[in-house]
Design a protein that fits this description.
Pfam families: Peripla_BP_6. Keywords: Signal. InterPro entries: BCAA_transport, Leu-bd, Peripla_BP_I. Belongs to the leucine-binding protein family. Helix 1 (about 1-20) crosses helix 5 and helix 3 packs parallel to helix 13 (about 340-360). By secondary structure, the protein is an alpha/beta fold. The chain is built from 14 helices and 12 strands. It has helices at about 1-20, 30-35, 60-80, 115-125, 140-150, 165, 180-200, 215-230, 245-255, 265-280, 295-305, 325-335, 340-360, 365-375; strands at about 50-55, 105-110, 135, 155, 175, 205-210, 230-240, 260-265, 285-290, 310-315, 405-410, 415-420.
Length: about 425
């Protein structure tokens, strides 16, 4: 109990600082103290456990949000009803056994912008009574939603990749999969592997990044990591994600002729670059995305086979040979008619993890759930679609066992190429030019 109170005092300090720096974001320190104190008691077993699912209602994230909601419906059914033929936690039960068989309900909130994410996070907790939040968060929307989480003392599991999230000292933040630092380190380690084991001869890299926090943070880490691994940076391009013409950027890349072009883009601008690449009859020897728009379902749906040979880091892919993964991929394809992508799965799987943590804690209290996350979740490996070694969250919120994979498009489908132990195909390098396809 002393630890719990200490955590809440720390939370109040963070809330005070954030409220001071974000005037108009709602509430003051006194209100935060009253709200946090309301959570002191252990929750009785409710009939329904609500989990907030944050998605975008407007803009380029609408498609991703719809996919997340479809998967949430599938997960609700698996948890709440008996499915003895499915390899997932709670599938053999009806509801959460340690919480009196309570059923799970995903409640949707909007995170189309940072300001909206803050108000929606607060609404979901105070009005809907969610025990925590997951969703298709960006780093920016995670930061504002965390204001409400620290104020009221409820967990958010977000896959926002910025290292500022784990550096912030949040008490109620968790991230199950890697941040930008590990994704990028894995990217350059893969280039090292290709040089050492496949004699790829990769020496030069060009960086292309949109200029918001997402792209800027990635570009900074990529630059430092490339230099540490001994690669020459021949271009470092920053652009506005709202741009309607990127011809000049593509011409600079064509002139630089790097062995690898690494990009951090959102969905619309990733498609814009692909169109400009084709118009200028240029395609890099290796085009390596850092998730974002290169992982969106819209990417291959819009481009068809023009998406071929693009690489990206990822957390999961539908070709992974894993019983739980295959069960989910099949159910999602049957429901939606489209192939499940890793970003959708991770966004909603984090809500599944909240249910597992609450069941393991035997409580819906925010501190009890966080304690279960810190101690480590008891998930049989065959019931984990990601096949991780575990889920144990450090004090900064990062899962100690989070890992990444590398995938490549071919025939407009994503294929795992690394690690080789789980690869569905071999890397195609250098990529074919437009007139060779």
């Amino acid at each position: 109990m002393k630890i719990k109170k200490l955590r809440k005092l720390i939370a109040l300090g963070l809330v005070a600082a954030m409220m001071f720096s974000m005037a108009g974001c709602g509430g003051d320190t006194k209100e935060a103290a009253e709200s946090v104190n309301k959570q002191d008691g252990e929750s009785e077993n409710p009939d329904t456990i609500k989990i907030g699912l944050m998605v975008s209602f407007t803009g380029s994230g609408v498609q991703a949000g719809q996919e997340c909601q479809a998967l949430a419906d599938i997960f609700e059914d698996i948890i709440n009803n008996k499915h003895e033929d499915i390899n997932l936690p709670f599938a053999a039960d009806e509801g959460l056994p340690n919480l009196g068989g309570a059923k799970v309900e995903f409640v949707v909130g909007d995170q189309s912008s940072a300001d909206v994410a803050l108000s929606e996070a607060e609404r979901l907790y105070t009005e809907e009574g969610v025990i925590g939040l997951c969703g298709n968060f960006s780093s920016a929307t995670t930061k504002t939603a965390m204001v409400a989480a620290e104020k009221y003392g409820f967990p958010i599991i977000s896959e926002g990749t910025s290292m500022t999230l784990t550096d912030a000292g949040y008490n109620y933040f968790a991230r199950s999969f890697p941040g930008d630092d590990l994704f990028i380190e894995d990217s350059f380690s893969y280039l090292d592997y290709l040089n050492e084991e496949k004699d790829a001869g990769i020496k030069t890299v060009a960086l292309v990044s949109e200029d918001s926090e997402f792209g800027t943070n990635i570009a900074n880490v990529e630059k430092a990591t490339a230099e540490a691994h001994g690669y020459e940076i021949v271009e470092n391009i920053s652009y506005n994600a709202q741009a309607t013409n990127v011809t000049s950027e593509v011409l600079r890349l064509k002139q630089a002729d790097a062995d690898v072009v690494m990009m951090s883009s959102y969905a619309a601008d990733a498609l814009l670059f692909m169109s400009a690449f084709k118009e200028q009859d240029y395609f890099p020897k290796m085009l390596f995305g850092q998730r974002g728009g290169f992982m969106a379902s819209d990417f291959a749906l819009n481009l068809g086979n023009d998406s071929d040979y693009v690489l990206t880091t990822s957390r999961w892919n539908s070709d992974m040979d894993n019983p739980a993964a295959q069960d989910i991929a099949r159910l999602f394809k049957e429901k939606t008619g489209i192939t499940l992508i890793g970003d959708t799965l991770t966004s909603v799987w984090d809500g599944y993890l909240l249910a597992i943590a609450a069941n393991q804690a035997g409580s819906t209290d925010g501190d009890a759930i966080m304690e279960a996350l810190h101690e480590g979740l008891d998930i049989p490996k065959e019931q984990d679609p990601f096949g991780l070694e575990g889920y144990k969250y450090a004090e900064n919120g990062q899962n100690e066992y989070g890992s990444s994979i590398i995938i490549q498009y071919l025939n407009s489908e994503l294929n795992t190429i690394y690690p080789e132990s789980i690869a569905g195909m071999e890397l195609i390098y250098p990529a074919k030019g437009w007139n060779e396809r």
